[in-house]
């Protein structure tokens, strides 16, 4: 529904299972190994480990920030963040939501959001074509966000919409796109199908659960 702004992101190679992330200024002596969880992102790790996000991403130019998998071995600061690693590992789940399939997902907060939808049509995607901010193909589960409200890479669970082109009851999604009209508590949900079909989504009020 909304024409998205020019994407500034670069296309990145997928993160290979078992690869290490190198943090600037660290020696092998100071580094420790951290096993990633499925919900981890560069943004979350930068906050938890007190590492500047851009510094973390610049140190890994060939890494796709949206492709961090559970079980992946990451290289992180050692002694300076030992207490953070310990508290992160032992943190209990305070809140969870049951998905339409009955799966329990832990979340840190819930947002009341106004949602629109967009298609892969050229009129909505400009010269870059049907790709997200990072250059990856648009797919079900891609949403455009205001990164000041929902940072890139954040995984969410969306409920409250009513549209035949989306999973019934709710859906998981990743904040991996942006749009000129997507400011504040707004999201634009990518929906496969023609522009005419997707425009039927209109404007809907939804709840967005920010997943841990």
Automatic annotation (TrEMBL):
Domain of life (superkingdom): Bacteria
Keywords tagged on the record: Signal
Record Pfam families: 3D, LysM
Domain LysM: start-end pairs: 32-76
InterPro entries: 3D_dom (IPR010611), 3D_YorM (IPR059180), LysM (IPR018392), LysM_dom_sf (IPR036779), Resuscitation_pf_RpfB (IPR051933), RlpA-like_sf (IPR036908)
Keyword Ubl conjugation belongs to the record: no
Signal peptide: 1-30
Name of protein: 3D domain-containing protein
Organism expressing this protein natively: Cohnella boryungensis
